[in-house]
Write a structure and sequence with these properties.
heterodimer; A: 175 residues; mainly alpha; 8 helices; 0% strand; B: 321 residues; alpha+beta; twelve-stranded mixed β-sheet; two-stranded antiparallel sheet; 14 strands; 31% helix
């Protein structure tokens, strides 16, 4: 890919598939701002790779996003670890900053709490709706690892969401 | 249930990303960053070559002699290192104490966070006071922009965390806490459950955790300075003694963040009498510490009292507890 070609390909990819890619990045990173940064990092990686990319650019970019989110970014220290660390002995300056308005918001906060690889598996399996084999191929791990990550991740999400789930059930009963 | 839950997760993801729009110029920005990176790498390669050449020149002039140290300098340095280690150890032990109530006051301030390649972020920090003791805490936040006329100096929100519930079986580090918040601006109050604690799968070492806690992007949103934070920073060797000074007229030992903690810069002041923290400044944010005996009067500061006539509203922190 020559520089001018690369730039044109990149513009086209962002114009055609940008929104879908950004949505994936937002889910992987946990917030809109971090999602943009993650996609930006993926695009730069794509430019760096240039002519050496074989196959579809989007496929390469998607794999890059998942791998950056799951390992690379974090290892490089560029990953902003936005841990939801609010404790009784660690008072926040604004009390409601990490509060969940409803079950869906709570689930997204809980998704952010999962370790990066578990989160990547959950996004691939339940957002992208890839099979176990496809997920394993994207992340470069075994199907067994995907299966256990998905199951542990979901279980953890379910456990952490239990207060909100119970409230939903109560609300349904009441109505 | 399992299928339903997966569906719920998917639905939440749809909802969360529903309003995502690609910002204009995303591809252009990537290209510019890529080009800048290439230039930096080239410059670094060129500078590296120059440095090797100049180092060779210096060695040639000095005959390659290593630095000569006088015995006095070495001894003084050893004594200083010993004294610094002693201060760190005492301060670490002091903040581990669970027998005092800590009062953390933050003055109203605006802090600016620099971000490489981006515009700096200015954050407004309202005045607040928090009290923490064991597993309970309570804080009053005075946000002038929320204040109603006729309520000068009144707290806008008064929030209590506690008592903690049982930790979750799959995540022993996460506890559901009861969060009670009184909003004086609109005369309402709410009570709900808040998950608190450290997310498991968090970085292992104390230094990494401290770094994560001081993420500059959280500036103005969440601050994690607390005895456990300071303990973590001391324990990981992230703070070193850099001298003596005075804080509001009182003697203080100054400790500053080492390279282990990097950004944002941290300065901690501890009392030479008790070794307890009296002030911390992180990336421009200042917090002052007072340590109080757990008397009945002081313990009463950890409990919110709902004023009569205030209306209960739905909590934004989760279901009622």
């Amino acid at each position: 890919m020559q520089d001018a070609d690369a730039a044109a390909d990149l513009e086209r990819l962002v114009a055609d598939r940008g929104e879908q890619l950004l949505r994936t990045a937002v889910l992987l990173a946990g917030s809109h701002q971090d999602g943009e940064d993650l996609l930006q990092a993926g695009l730069e990686r794509l430019l760096r790779r240039g002519r050496r990319i074989e196959g579809s650019l989007e496929g390469y970019l998607r794999r890059t996003l998942y791998n950056l989110a799951a390992d690379g970014w974090r290892r490089q220290g560029a990953w902003r670890r936005k841990l939801p660390v609010i404790g009784a002995s660690q008072p926040p300056a604004e009390p409601d900053v990490a509060a969940a308005a409803d079950l869906r918001e709570a689930l997204m906060r809980i998704l952010r709490m999962l370790p990066p690889r578990q989160r990547a598996v959950i996004v691939l399996r339940y957002w992208e709706q890839l099979s176990q084999a496809e997920t394993a191929a994207t992340l470069g791990c075994s199907e067994g690892a995907v299966k256990s990550s998905a199951s542990r991740g979901l279980q953890r999400m379910r456990d952490l969401a239990s207060p909100w789930l119970a409230a939903e059930i109560e609300q349904e009963k009441a109505t | 249930m399992s299928g339903e839950f997966e569906e719920l997760v998917r639905d939440s993801m749809e909802w969360f990303t529903g309003d995502v729009r690609v910002p204009a110029g995303l591809a252009g920005k990537a290209r510019r960053n890529h080009r800048r990176r290439l230039l930096t790498v080239r410059a670094a390669v060129a500078a590296g070559t120059a440095a090797v050449l100049s180092a060779a020149a210096v060695l040639a002039v000095t005959g390659g002699a290593s630095g000569v140290r006088g015995p006095d300098t070495g001894a003084r340095r050893a004594v200083r290192a010993q004294a610094a280690a002693y201060v760190i150890k005492r301060a670490e032990r002091a903040v581990s104490t669970r027998s005092l109530i800590v009062e953390i006051s933050t003055p109203e301030q605006v802090i600016t966070t620099e971000r490489p390649g981006k515009r700096p972020v200015r954050s407004f920090i309202p005045r607040s006071v928090w009290w923490a003791y064991h597993n309970r805490s309570r804080g009053e936040v005075f946000a002038a922009y929320l204040r109603k006329p006729g309520q000068p100096g009144a707290a806008n929100t008064d929030t209590e965390y506690g008592p903690p519930g049982k930790s979750l079986p799959s995540s022993p580090s996460l506890h559901p806490y009861t969060q009670t918040t009184i909003n004086y601006s609109d005369r309402t109050w709410s009570r709900g459950t808040q998950l608190t604690g450290l997310a498991s799968g968090s970085p292992g070492t104390a230094c990494e955790l401290v770094k994560a806690m001081t993420d500059p992007l959280l500036a103005g949103k969440v601050f994690f300075t607390s005895p456990s934070f300071i303990h973590g920073a001391l324990a990981c060797g992230g703070l070193s003694v850099t001298g003596r000074t005075r804080v509001d007229g009182a003697a203080a030992i100054k400790l500053t963040g080492t390279r282990r903690l990097a950004k944002p810069p941290i300065t901690l002041y501890v009392s030479p009498a008790t070794y307890l923290p009296i002030r911390i400044v992180i990336g421009g944010l200042r917090e002052d510490y007072r340590w109080l005996a757990p008397t009945a009067a002081n313990l009463a500061m950890l409990k919110v009292r709902i004023p009569p006539g205030f209306r209960r509203v739905k909590s934004t922190a989760g279901p009622s507890g």
